[in-house]
Amino acid sequence: MARARCIVAEAEIALAARDLSGSARALGTARATLEAHGDRVNAAHARHLEARRLLLMGRFDEAERTIGELDPAPFPPALRITHELVVMGIATRRLHTQAARTALARAEHAARQADIPSLTAEVESARRVLDTPAARLVAHGEERLLLLEEVEALLASKSLVVDACRHSVREAGAEVSLTGRPVLFALARLLGEAWPGDVPRETLIAQAFRTAYADESHRARLRVEIGRLRSALVSLAEVRATRRGYALTPRHAPEVAVLARPLEEKHAAVLALLAEGEPWSSSALALALDTSQRTVQRALDSLAEEGKVQAYGQGRARRWLTPPLPGFTTTLLLPAFLPGT
User: Fold this and answer.
1) How many CA atoms, within 13 angstroms, populate the side-chain half-sphere of residue 39?
2) CATH code at position 285
3) Domain around 29
4) How many domains does the chain have?
5) Bridge partners, residue 137, by sequence
6) Alpha helices in 57-95 (DSSP H)
7) Per-residue pLDDT reduced to its tens digit, 239-271
8) Is residue 341 part of a domain?
9) What is the pTM of this model?
10) For the chain, how long is the longest CA-to-CA vector?
């Protein structure tokens, strides 16, 4: 029992330090030991630590299964707060905002009972996630910021949405992922932003191919890439040629909209995790983003040169930190899957 409790305590410290490299199996074994000996509170605490770790790594289905069998009613208020914040985190990442607000209300009620300043501050921070802009809507040549509820409503509407947060094109009930196909997505986004108008060929070449000039080889490549985009979007939209370029015409949707991040940033995923206000190691960032540590380190070095992040500590104790992005929630920038996937 004592050993199991120590393992849970170490896991809590590791999570607070954003050290995601610890053994999930050891924590699971400790939880099973606590459950077998009737220590339900600490066993539940271990489950919540597992779920929070999975949530940080974008593994929402596993996080939900981990706490799915727990009934928070008998728990002390402090543990109920943790439970509801995990439930809220899963719902928020999936853009189920009503469920997220319901869980937040329960967390606020438990926070008043617990009367622990640090937990109250954590609940208030969670509320700000729901009350600050999460994305930008680009439609009809205009832009405006959207809250999470508005993002959820947009994705559930009949509009054809070019989602620049997750590199996909979707309408209600159908989705085409363009992840790993940056040129096709760049073309789709340019056409979506110009809808119902068209985009000149020179503009498409300059921005999708990132070149300052266009020759016959670029025009030939554009025709090839447009053909690939037509094939990819055949069930959702038509890409038609115009006199000066190309235009996007939805097959069923009444309009086209582009959903973009509130701030465009090359290393947005790294900044999104750091903007939560907790210090991260480069190895933990790599695990959360499912990429190599060297790639993360290059991104951190670049951001440090721009003054957007700062480091403290040396060697394996080195941690990276940044103040939150002012006025924006980072939910849509975190590793996530679209609702229903």
Assistant:
1) 16
2) 1.10.10.10
3) 2-131
4) 3
5) 144, 259
6) 60-68, 77-93
7) 999 999 999 999 999 999 999 988 777 777 787
8) no
9) 0.77
10) 76
